[in-house]
Amino acid sequence: MKTLAVARFTLLRLYRSNYVLAALLILGLVLFMLLISKSVADASDLNMTHNAARMILWLLAIWLGISVVQADRADGTLRSTLTRPVSLLEVMIGKLLGAFFFICLLAAALSAFITLGAYFKGTAVGWASVLYQVSLLPVYFIVLALAMALSQVTPRFVAGLAVLLAWDGLFKANVVAAILPRLPQGLADVFQALCRVAYYLAPPTSTFFITYRDFARGSWAVDSYTYFLLLPYALHYAFLACLLATWALSREEL
Amino acid sequence: MSRPIVELIQVTKTFRDRRRRVVALKEATFTVNAGDVFGLLGANGAGKTTAMRCVLGLTRPDGGTVRVLDRERPDRRTLFSQAAYLPEEPQLFAGATGREQLRYFGRLSALKRDRLKTRIDQVIELVGLQDAAHRPIKTYSKGMKQRLSIGGAILHEPRIVFLDEPTRGLDPIGRRDIRDMLQRLADDGATLFINSHLLGEVERLCNRVAILVNGEVRADGLLSELLTEDERITVRFVLPENSAIEAFPQAEHAEGGLWKQIVADTPALADLTGRIAVAGGRVIEARTQRLALEDYFIRIVREGDAS
């Protein structure tokens, strides 16, 4: 109940924030224009729009994850929340859920924009367009959780983004391949083992993404085994993030 | 006899920055009983906020014992289910309405839906925000925000409410509103722990005070007893024209051709009236004057600074 109360209030905060509403408006407008800008309606057009939407929501999830606790800290409402009979963990889970609900609303709005745009262009999209955005929700949840955990280290969006991109980049096969030969044999083995452990503990977010084209073709079921691990990993990340945030806050004097 | 609800025993706290150590609390000891309206007084930087934060577990003391609500260092959840804290600045989300903010606080305190609705209505009436409860908090004045914060603090009917400088930055009308509201709470039997340096307000509201000087508790007890310690008796009298005023070296001229002398206690009063009678004079008035809290406070602070 208390977790839901925090989630509802977080959602209210985000909803009443003019900054985010303005961002949503611009976002929708850009996507709508992107979609109707080409004269010929085709699937590649839709693929590009969906990928753009995915990228925008990915960035927004990082921004939200980083700012959702920091904003409360800045205006003191974190203290007024924590001086109630509520545990840190309940607050953190509530914050995460509230931000996630907000992303869900944005994803729904984007999905509606894209579907509407496609409809006006005469492109038959059916439910694929909506289902694709729904399928990405656990990924946004993971990004949110990661960003929330990062926000305990850095309150800056750019720094958080840089860390996430670096994390994603580290696991690219060519990056590992480039690093390994430069290391002495013993160290290379250790590095490789560490990379493997780190990968399973906290896989980069790009692992979970799938393009709209692949999704629409149904090839995701074959190509990306990690896709099946989305939900367990979402829970795993949420647990890690909330635990880290709770630990960081418990050490802090309010 | 009422039971202690807050006990600080020999509590010390030191803050360190790069260059120096600042002793915020030095073996501070005081007690607040259930039903008390307790005022923790001190100049700016005396350690009032640190003491309150130590009681609430928001700051870890370096040493000593803190007992709140019959427990030594209760966990945050247990403590705040029976206590409420109002920091110096109202900490509210400006985009929410007053009612939404109260509903949030009530839900965090696990009030059931029906009870929550009833309590919100009661509290809004108590803090006098009936006409503003549906408006966003960003349109509130500072006094209204403070009243809403107090409303949020008492929503779950805590056993004790901690208020850190509740009237800070308010205009005289806002201060009086807050004071009246706290008086109503006190009349209803709430235990209040107020940090303040506004002595007039503390004198009107509190029955028990402690005075902090540079982190040390220099005075602690019932306000009536502390101020009685320094009671003085002012005696106004007349003397015959030919009598020797030299017999009354401490007497001063008073209005209406009278003489005035201040004595400390009843034996001194008896001695003075005897001498007046011997000199052929007459006592017109002997009035006991209780020391104002402000005078008492300044005396304690000066003594503290001198030592």
Question: What would you call the shape of chain B?
Answer: elongated
Strand content of chain B: 25-35%
| Mass-distribution shape of chain A | flat
Largest interface: A-B, 24 and 30 residues
Order of helices and strands of chain A: HHHHHHHHHHHH
Uncertain segments of chain A are none
Can you count the helices of chain A? 12
Mean pLDDT level of chain B:
86
Report how far the terminal alpha carbons of chain B are from each other. Answer: 35 Å
Which spans of chain B of ≥5 residues are poorly predicted at pLDDT below 50? none
Number of strands of chain A: 0
Alpha-beta content class of chain A: mainly alpha
Count the beta strands of chain B. 14
Relevant terms:
A: 254 residues, mainly alpha, 79% helix, B: 307 residues, 6-stranded mixed beta sheet, 10 helices, 14 strands, 29% strand
Explain how this protein is built:
The complex is a heterodimer of chains A (254) and B (307). Chain A has helices at residues 2-16, 18-36, 43-75, 77-82, 88-121, 128-151, 157-170, 173-179, 185-201, 212-217, 220-223, 230-250. In chain A, α3 (43-75) runs parallel beside α6 (128-151) and α5 crosses α12 (230-250). Chain A starts with a helix and ends with a helix. With 254 residues, chain A is mostly helical. The model of chain A has no long low-confidence stretch (mean pLDDT 77). Chain B has 307 residues and is an alpha/beta fold. Helix content of chain B is 36%, strand content 29%. Chain B has helices at residues 48-56, 76-82, 98-108, 113-126, 142-154, 172-187, 199-205, 223-228, 266-278, 293-306; strands at 4-16, 21-33, 37-42, 63-68, 71-72, 83-86, 160-164, 191-196, 208-213, 216-222, 232-238, 252-253, 259-263, 282-289. Chain B has a six-stranded mixed beta sheet with strand order 6-7-8-3-9-10, with helices on both faces. In chain B, α3 (98-108) runs parallel beside α5 and α4 packs antiparallel against α5. The radius of gyration of chain B is 25 Å and the shape is elongated. The chains are: A mainly alpha (254), B alpha/beta (307). At the A-B interface, α1 and α4 of A face α2 and α3 of B.
